[in-house]
Amino acid sequence: MELAAGIFANVLILSAMYILVALGFALLFSIAGILHVSHGAIYTVSGYICWQLATTAGINQWLALLLTVLIVGAFGLFLEKFCFRPFTGDFDRSLVVGIGIILILQTTIVVTVGQESRSMSPFVAGILHSDFVSISLERIVTFAMGAAMLGVLVWFINKTKPGLQMRAMSQDLQGAIMQGINVNRTSAIAIVIACASAAVAGCLMGAYISLSPFMGDVVLGKALILVILGGMGSMTGIFYAGLLLGALDATLPIFFSGSVAEVIAMSAIIIVLLFRPTGFLGREIS
Amino acid sequence: MKWKLPYLSNKGKIAKPSIWVAILIILAVLPLFIKSPYLIHIINMTFIYILVTVSFRTILTSGQLPLAHAGFMGIGAYVSAIAAKTFGVSPWLSIPLGALVAMGVGILIGYPFARLRAVYYAMISLFFGMLIISGVKAFAKWTGGAAGLTGIPPLFGFNKVPYYYFFLGLTAVSLLILYRLESSRPGLNWKAIAQSYMVAASVGINEARYRIIASAIGCLFAGIAGATYAHYSTVVGPTSFSFMATIMLLIYVVVGGVGNFTGPIIGIFLLMTVPELLRGFREYVPYISAAIVLIVVFLMPKGVTGLVKSFLSWLAELWKSRRTNDAP
Hints:
The complex is a heterodimer of chains A (286) and B (328).
Chain A: H1 2-32, H2 39-55, H3 61-84, H4 91-112, E1 127-129, E2 134-136, H5 137-159, H6 161-171, H7 173-178, H8 183-208, H9 215-230, H10 235-255, H11 258-275
Antiparallel strand pairs in A: 1-2
Helix pairs in contact in A: 1-5, 1-6, 1-8, 1-9, 1-10, 2-3, 2-4, 2-8, 2-9, 3-8, 5-6, 5-8, 6-8, 9-10, 10-11
Chain B: H1 15-33, H2 37-61, H3 69-86, H4 91-113, H5 118-138, H6 140-143, H7 160-182, H8 185-195, H9 197-202, H10 207-233, H11 243-256, H12 263-277, H13 285-299, H14 303-326
Helix pairs in contact in B: 1-7, 2-7, 2-10, 2-11, 2-12, 3-4, 3-5, 3-10, 4-10, 8-10, 11-12, 11-14, 12-13
């Protein structure tokens, strides 16, 4: 029972975090046409910023989280304006710019903080006891934050005017321009949202697991898998794929050693993609 | 009598080979003047990576983005290393074996992957690269796992100079083969497929077949480079063949210029050799690489070779206009 509850909590947390990062990644890919490889680095950097603000500057950690989201969102705005907008529609060059950003961010972390991993104090301490199971409050809060953030994102994309504009852009860019949608402003909003959700995920996961300069690489891989497996341009697909991947990641290591589990997961993904290249719910894009 | 700049003239096709022969001769006598083994080591690594990156570009010319390419280098390296270390095969036999296994895997995955194009091909090959790395980590009994495989028998002992000539010859011959291939029938077919697979198919080019040929050749040379690298450094680890390693190959190509055969070579020189020479403050080296990458991407849309090319044609234009102005 205890083990099952632990696994279940891990499945939910990992899924929520993967979906949070992947949703922003997918948003950028389908709206701005950017394969945003520096998304993982932004996730990492936000964890470090939050940790630095909380320890060095001595700010309350929740306030630090909020500040981090603001800082990283502003950084996203800078990225859109100066790094990605000049290369709209140029896949290779925007990819290379992203790699330049990764190099700068990762090196800055290594130079200022160091290569070794750091542990961040949890956002809430304590354990919740009930009749059946006892589960740490941190897990509950991490999941609740992730789920709330996801809820806000889905609401934003589905119900608000900028969200509508984003969906229009992802369906047909030329058509969106002809309807008078300000494409640049909409992609700026999208990148701020994407960076902010990556920042939330980075801070929460930094506290939940630990901080290391290269933790973003793994998450970037997961985000790619989610976006491809769920199908480009489909939000529901990302949720399904996220739940599946979270479940695989949380349960397979119990039965196999870590890398064997990875081999199985990767083979399964490749086989799925061979038969259904557009993912679960995706549509063909050229 | 008309005098022309030799490099710029259309008929000056003899000029290009002579430049390459001159570079080859300079490189051949270079070890007589360089006494530092560390410098020789850097040049050796440059040779290996030139081979990998040029073969990466060969696949790229066929319109496929092979994001598993460093993984194929890894296949060559590990197969050759395990054959030589565990089974006692001579490195001279295990290097071709590793290269052929890499090529075989490239052909095998080429068949199913030929169904996918553009982004979908890039993504599935990315996942295949991740599969190779996790496979290396999973079979730790053979491959040494994440810690890497040590004690691989070296090709020539520990003096770097024989390796230098070996890599020089290997790279020169391989580059010649790849260059001839690119300007021959298969190469033209690859370019046609990359521009429009439908038009290519309509003029009778078997798209799947030529794409598989491209990835087979690319993987063969990646395997050769990986296998020789294993027997040169005697230590291999999975991080040299990871997704980020492939991304670095892509950067070398884009910085040098995708459209030109010499692009990858210049990219390697700028981004690998120059930062390596500035090793004094090695923590900050990625900043230099990032600066070079960003400068090139922002200021030179077609890479360094593109800039050089347009500069040369501008020069030729200037030369021509001056001559016509001078004429009475």
